[in-house]
Design brief:
The chain is an alpha/beta fold. Among the domains are: 58-197, Jelly Rolls (Sandwich); 228-354, no CATH class; 507-591, Golgi alpha-mannosidase II (Immunoglobulin-like), CATH 2.60.40.1180. The strands form eight sheets. Strands 2-14-17-18-19-20-21-22 form an eight-stranded parallel sheet. A hairpin with a 2-residue loop joins strand 28 and strand 29 (530-531). Helix 4 (303-317) runs parallel beside helix 6. The radius of gyration is 27 Å and the shape is globular. The two termini are 19 Å apart. 48% of the residues are buried. The protein binds alpha-L-arabinofuranose.
């Protein structure tokens, strides 16, 4: 292997070459990165009509002791559903309440992870015709073991009243639930019930362990919030940023009909921009351009959609005095966010109205924000785009052999037009299963090809990023989690090898090699005509990703089965050969 490391052969890697793609898929956000523990906190999951779907809230007690229904009587105009609970029992009358009282409980997203010593902030809104005597508790999964509790007695709740308490956990259970119970006869209404751990990342609401996994990749950018999630099966269910900002209690939430789950939109437009800032990653906002999977807005009537996006950019970047910038400021971020990239739609090129709509968005954004880079959905790798764009989006999901051979995909593409944004790549199907070494090796080959072609490729991200194991809609994914645990798949660790590529002030050479075959491969590394091992002053470190079986995966039981192992190569000094293990991805770092 001859490595030409002379300055003249160097290409400057864009600062944003490697990043991450966050989509609300597999409960990545709701029940994942967003640390809210209550699922369907406003009882809104059935939409604005009654009866609404209160799932996964469940009822404690039977029809003889309480009647539960939903009504459109909430204090919050954008989410009118409230829960009505008519308690028929008490501790003295003819119907005696069961021990522990009657009420409702929420199991969160397949169980709440309550940990001893940690504090959880409970907020809820309540109203009653009489006085209330409520118990709130965090209990183990069977509802029996109490981990934390508090009482609310109040005779002045005839109007909607906000209640708050900090609950300090005295025990641990990864499948806990939140209970609201009473033994007092009467009618109580509940709405907007939230339980958040107090130790989220910088208090910004992100689950710490999952945030750290993202941060550890040192992403140059973060693309959000989808994916198909942005499009919707139908336009009425697409992500609409205006419905996701402002106080959390006032957000209507929406049903993501592509990945089939309700989200309360706690992780909204503001939080995505905050996430990018916290990660030190450039935000790349993908927005709906009036095209969903099944319906489209005519180009002649797309202007309201264009205005919505201009408003969304003003929300991110406008002065605190501007209409939408002032909303951002009121949410605690007076300084503008550094939004410089937007993508017009997702995988929509070829659909009837895409180009017409695209041009409306392109012209309006270019005019108002000339510095914003605009990304088209149309593939400019095989033929030049017939419309203006700063980048074109390119997605590849395929088998391992094809992914590996695609390392050369960008060798010949034009260096003159817009550059590629490889915003979704992954080996899928049998080669990948739920995240195999084989998939990671093929992807490593592909990503080395992207890095070599970084004069034609501006940005790249693996997809999808997260999966909650309880809702594995799409597999494989980079980070697997449940309420309490998580691990990276081999594809996550593959990305780790490239984390220094965007920016690193240290002076060293990194040589990355994939051995995609079943035999050892012997390497001789020459740099500018000098054989590596004959240069004694070079310090050499090796990092290797491999395993005994090509289809090996990580798991909760063995989260580190397939991870990079770093070792010093002092003993290789003076020797002439370096041996690559079969089926391995190896990086050699040479200190200069
Ligand atoms: O990454 C999963 C899905 O794959 C994305 O939502 C979509 O863009 C692609 O089809």
């Amino acid at each position: 292997l001859f490595i030409n490391a002379s300055e003249t052969s160097a290409k400057k890697i864009p600062e944003t070459l490697f990043g991450i793609f966050f989509e609300e898929i597999n409960h990545a956000g709701a029940g994942g990165l967003w640390a809210e523990l209550v699922s369907n906190r406003g009882f809104e999951a059935g939409g604005p009509n009654t009866p609404s779907n209160i799932d996964p809230w469940s009822i404690i007690g039977d029809e003889s002791s309480l009647i539960v229904s939903t009504e459109r009587t909430s204090y919050f105009p954008r989410n009118k559903i409230a829960l009505r609970m008519e308690v028929l029992c008490d501790n003295e009358g003819t119907i005696i309440c069961p021990a522990g009282g009657v009420g409702i409980y929420n199991p969160g997203f397949w169980g709440m992870n309550i940990e001893q010593g940690k504090t959880y902030k409970l907020v809820f809104y309540v109203r009653s015709e009489g006085s209330i005597d409520l118990s709130v508790s965090l209990t183990g999964s069977n509802g029996l073991q109490t981990l934390a509790s508090a009482n609310f007695k109040d005779s002045n709740v005839s109007n909607w009243t906000k209640m708050e308490v900090l609950l300090h956990a005295q025990g641990t259970d990864a499948k806990s639930r939140l209970q609201l119970t009473t033994t007092r006869k009467g009618v109580i209404w509940f709405d907007q019930v939230s339980l958040m751990p107090t130790d989220t990342y910088k208090g910004h609401g992100f689950r710490n362990d999952l945030f750290e996994m993202m941060q550890d990749l040192r992403p140059g950018f973060i693309r959000f919030p989808g994916g198909c999630f942005v499009e919707g099966e139908w336009l009425r269910n697409a992500f609409r940023w205006k419905a996701t900002v402002g106080p959390w209690e006032e957000r209507p939430g929406h049903f993501g009909d592509v990945w089939h789950y309700w989200t309360d939109d706690g992780l909204g437009h503001f939080e995505f921009l905050q996430l990018a800032e916290d990660l030190g990653a450039a935000p790349v906002w993908v927005f709906n351009n009036g095209v969903s999977h099944n319906d489209q807005v005519d180009t002649s009537s797309v202007l309201p959609f264009v205005q919505e996006i201009l408003d969304g950019i003003e929300f991110a970047r406008g002065e605190p005095q501007s209409k939408w910038g002032s909303l951002r400021a009121s949410m605690g971020h007076p300084e503008p966010f550094d939004l410089k990239y937007v993508a017009v739609g997702n995988e929509d090129c070829g659909k009837k109205n895409y180009i017409g709509n695209y041009l409306k968005f392109y012209n309006a954004i270019r005019n108002a924000y000339p510095d914003i880079k605009i990304i088209s959905n149309c593939d400019g790798s095989s033929k030049p785009l017939d419309h203006p764009a700063d980048m074109y989006d390119y997605h590849i999901y395929t088998g391992a052999n094809n992914m590996f051979s695609s390392a050369r995909k960008f060798d010949q593409v034009s260096r003159n037009g817009p550059k590629a944004f490889v915003s979704e790549y992954a080996v899928t199907g049998n080669d990948a299963s739920n995240g195999s070494l084989l998939a990671a090796l093929a992807e490593a080959g592909f990503v080395i090809g992207l890095e070599k072609n970084c004069d034609a490729v501006d940005m790249a991200s693996y997809a999808p990023l997260f999966v909650n194991t309880n809702d594995r809609t799409w597999s494989p994914d980079a980070i697997v989690f449940d309420s309490a645990q998580m691990y990276g798949t081999p594809s996550y660790w593959m990305q780790h090898f490239f984390r220094e590529s965007n920016e690193d002030s240290k002076k060293y050479l990194r040589i990355k090699v994939v051995n995609f075959g079943s035999n050892n491969v012997t390497l001789k590394i020459f740099i500018d005509g000098v054989e590596l091992n004959s240069v004694p002053s070079l310090g050499l470190t090796k990092t290797e990703l491999t395993s005994s079986n090509l289809m090996d995966e990580n798991s909760f039981q063995a989260p580190k089965k397939v991870i990079p192992v770093r070792s010093s190569m002092e003993d290789a000094k003076g020797k002439t050969d370096i041996v690559l293990s079969p089926y391995s991805f190896t990086a050699f770092d040479l200190l200069m």
